[in-house]
Prior knowledge:
mainly alpha; elongated
Amino acid sequence: xxxxxxxxxxxxxxxxxxxxxxxxxxxxxxxxxxxxxxxxxxxxxxxxxxxxxxxxxxxxxxxxxxxxxxxxxxxxxxxxxxxxxxxxxxxxxxxxxxx
Length: 99
């Protein structure tokens, strides 16, 4: 099954590394996080984008802050982004129109 996005792949790799560093199996992490181990495997393979709740559950089970799992990820890593505009771009355009 292909990966869902570059961001999902990176997050999954980070999750797998953290789990392996702790010498936990998928089953171990599933029990600790209160979720089925097959879902964790899908996240680790980049096939599924975890919800914030799932990410927090996994991070808590690993005794980690969830922030490092998503640090450096951005919207350009997801398919189908219609534009590259940000709030800064929008506000600058508004200021230009007001002049």
